[in-house]
Design a protein that fits this description.
This protein has a single domain, classed as Rossmann fold, CATH 3.40.50.300. The protein has a six-stranded mixed sheet, with helices on both faces. Strands 2-1-4-5 form a four-stranded antiparallel sheet. The protein contains seven helices and ten strands. It is globular, with a radius of gyration of 18 Å. Helix 3 crosses helix 4 and helix 5 packs parallel to helix 6. The two termini are 22 Å apart. With 221 residues, it is of the alpha/beta class. 36% of the residues lie in helices and 28% in strands.
């Protein structure tokens, strides 16, 4: 499903290259739950952003379902990501001025889904995550765990094939974090969603069926 070949990413500082990723090769199959681990500054988030098509590489190749991502035009790449990838962030990234309902609905508006279908899909998500009673509240009125549930519902509403999660429990207490990880595990096992998470937590990493360790921008064998 996802194949990275010799991905390198660097920044130029004072005329010299500062390497973030060096020759990273990775193959992720459909339906896998992969945890990417490594110390701060090891390139985990950069790798996730490249997989999510939010960033590009300076060298190497990236194939998503046999499409050569780096040869696509920006609009094509954006469309490929929008149709296949959902994001869950540590900081939730909910829109403060929108209600829970409106936050979940937002990706469907961008995809020009008709109003009646949007209502039906949002209702399903509210029900699935047990947040029907929160639909008219704003993010500031929710706990961290509830905000992250809304973030996951928003990520899933477009029925993505892949969920990319960057430290999804980083701002949650241990109980809330465990609930979110159990939810990811359920989505992976029961719904077949491919999940790639970046985490510092060994405990969270073990929810995946494979752990990829990055050290100084390289995959550690």
């Amino acid at each position: 499903m996802i194949q990275l070949k010799n991905i390198s990413r660097w920044y130029k500082t004072s005329g010299s290259k500062s390497m973030v990723l060096t020759n990273v090769s990775l193959h992720i199959n459909n339906g896998e739950f992969v945890s990417i681990m490594g110390p701060s500054g090891s390139g985990k988030t950069t790798l996730l952003q490249i997989i999510g098509m939010l960033d590009s590489a300076d060298d190497g190749q990236y194939f998503f379902e046999d499409q050569n991502v780096f040869t696509l035009k920006e609009k094509q790449r954006s469309q490929l990501a929008k149709n296949n990838i959902g994001f869950v962030f540590q900081a939730y990234h909910l829109i403060d001025e929108l209600t829970v309902y409106e936050n979940i609905e937002t990706p469907l508006i961008y995809k020009d889904v008709k109003s009646d279908e949007r209502k039906s899909l949002v209702a399903d998500m509210l029900d699935k995550f047990n947040i029907v009673g929160k639909k008219d509240l704003f993010p500031s009125q929710l706990s961290g765990g509830q905000q992250q549930l809304v973030g996951i519902a928003r990520a899933l509403i477009s029925k993505p094939k892949v969920i990319l999660a960057d430290e999804p429990t980083g701002n949650l207490n241990s109980k809330q974090g465990q609930e979110i990880m159990q939810l990811f595990s359920q989505l992976n096992k029961e719904d077949g969603v491919t999940i790639i998470q970046v985490t510092h937590s060994e405990k969270n990493a073990e929810y995946g069926n494979r752990i990829v360790r990055l050290i100084d921008g390289e995959v550690s064998n």
